[in-house]
Amino acid sequence: MLKLTDVWVRYRMAREKPRTLQEYVIRRLRGGTVAYDELLVLRGVSLEVEKRETLGVIGPNGAGKSTLLKVIAGVIKPTGGTVDVRGRVAPLIGLGAGFDPDLTGLENTYLNASLLGRSRNEIEARLPAIVAFAELGEFIHSPLRTYSSGMVVRLAFAIATEVEPDILLIDEVLAVGDEHFRTKCEKRLIGFKDMGTTMVLVSHVMQEVKRLCDRVLWLDHGVPRMCGDPKSVIDAYLEATREAGDAGSGGGSAGRPT
Amino acid sequence: MIAAVAEVVEIVRRRELLRNLVTRDIKVRYKRSILGFIWVMLNPTLTMLVLSVVFAELFRVTLKDYTPYVLSGLVLWLFFAQSTSVALKAFVGNSALISTVALPKAVFPLSVVLSALVNLLLSSIPLFGLLAVLGLPVSRHVVLLPVAIVEVFIFACGVALTLSTVTVFFQDMTYVYDVLLLAWMYLTPIFYPASIIPGKFGWLVRMNPMIHYLNAFRACIYMESRTLGPDLWYGLVWAAIALAVGWALYHRYKDRIVYYV
After folding, report:
1. Chain B interface, mutation test: which of A27, A85, A92, A103, most B Cβ atoms within 10 Å?
2. Which of the listed residues A58, B124, B164, B173 has the most CB atoms within 10 Å of its CB?
3. In this structure, are residues B108 and B21 in contact, taking their beta carbons and an 8 Å threshold?
4. For B24, which of A11, A94, A111 is closest by C-beta distance?
5. Which residues of A touch B254 (CB under 8 A)?
């Protein structure tokens, strides 16, 4: 179960941020102070996702979707509000992030599992299933740099789902694989629901969101614009985006032109 | 205070991750080279040979047993220099992981220092081999060697936490530290006898923590020393200071790291 109450994320970004010690010292010596811009990435987001429920999060780039996932994953501490996450959270670790090209698939599997908080023993029993799902066969003993990008995504997906998380977070990862892989992943995610897993899915592919999600949250500049059944939220979102497009970049708040 | 302890408990709970990160470092470093682990021992030994050829004549009067002097100096210095300069990039280099998975982030710099410690232990083997070849007796204080090593390890952890945290906010730290490390190396009697440092720079010697670790390390392995006790005490104090500073800095800024990497 997952519950966010009035979550705010403010992020102070220095205007002309001194990225180097040299700049910082020079600025300080001149007696200047650093001006900050306040960036409100999430403004009062409240939501509750039940067991077995899949929540889709949509919105234009910069709407705060990824930040929301980071808050749920515990990577970002919200500036205001409370986050109540019960159970084990597994983010689908971005491609390559938790993998080392010089290690074999097997070694990477252990490393990745321990990043997700699972021990070697726990993952060992799941190994055949992981290899089978990722369709790696003997490749599991080869270094990861010999893999195709599709093989890497499959392995990452197989690990994140085989660790049996209570809450699975997916940020646009499915878009990477081919059609066959996507279908397979979707099937797996639907099976997951039956096991009682909560899922939060961020995606720009509306078809996917419609197929997989029970409920959809539309975020806009950090503000929840609408939350409800997938079809009506997606339709409203697409409508707003179209209007914004028609009105030119100046009109509408649905989306920043990207 | 409680939060700082909670972080330590979390790291202990995630020790398997720490172990996996250390084995990854070690495996990756040696996987592609045919000589594998031999390299970690060969590297300081070969450098020692070069330095011996160059400097042995020069320092013969003041230093007997020049080769073990250089080798012990190199082994310990390389541990410190490599662990801290690699750990400096520990947060910046793992940005993708830090921004997706909730982890006690300190595992990244700590794993770097731990894998350097494994290298230190391995590269000490040729040092004892050299003593055997030269027929030099091992110091009767050798039982204190683990103490000396633990001290320099803690010191390196403190420096690593400090550097990795600072680098997140000031990326030119890596250039600053390169220069600093070079100066520090020349201020540490690795390949020259401590006695050639002019008296007026005595304060610099006393203020350099690495000198105490090096003295203690050498005294525990083969060298006659009358200052082993004080060196170990100074070393302990420096280790405590470094760890306190590093941990305080890391703890204060750890929640902001994700915004900057």
Report:
1. A103
2. B164
3. yes
4. A111
5. none
Give A170's strand partners: A201
Beta bridge partners of A82: A5
- Say whether residue A71 is in contact with chain B using an 8 A CB cutoff: no
ipTM of this complex: 0.83
Q: In degrees rounded to 5, what are phi and psi of residue A73?
A: -70, -15
Q: What is the pLDDT of residues A117-151, one digit of tens each?
A: 888 888 899 999 999 988 999 999 999 999 988 88
Cα separation, A85 vs B130, whole angstroms: 58
Instruction: Return d(Cα A243, Cα A62) in angstroms, integer.
Output: 19
Phi first, then psi, for residue A57 (nearest 5°) are: -120, 120
What strands lie across the sheet with A89-91, from one edge to the other?
A: A89-91, A167-171, A198-202, A54-58, A215-220, A223-228
Q: End-to-end CA distance of chain B: give it in Å, rounded.
A: 26
DSSP-based three-state secondary structure for A31: coil
Read off the tokens for A38: 């306040």
Q: Is A17 on the interface with B (CB under 8 A)?
A: no
Under an 8 A CB cutoff, do B24 and A103 touch? yes
**Predicted TM-score (pTM) of this structure:** 0.89
Residue type, A41: V
What ranges in B32-65 are assigned the alpha helix state H? 38-59
The pLDDT tens digits for B83-95 are 999 999 999 999 9
- CA-to-CA distance for B3 and B205, rounded, in angstroms? 37
Closest among A180, A177, A238, A176 to A207, alpha carbons compared: A238
Please report where in the chains the tokens 């070690």 appear, as a residue. Answer: B26
| CA A217 centroid distance within chain | 14
A136, A105 Cβ separation under 8 angstroms:
yes
Strands (E) across A31-129 are located at 36-49, 54-58, 80-85, 89-91
Alpha-carbon gap, residue A149 to A181, rounded angstroms:
12
pLDDT digits 0-9 by tens, A4-49: 999 999 887 666 666 778 877 877 777 766 667 778 899 999 999 9
Which pair of structure tokens corresponds to residue A142? 């080869």
Q: In B60-140, which ranges are continuous DSSP H helix? A: 66-87, 90-93, 95-98, 107-134
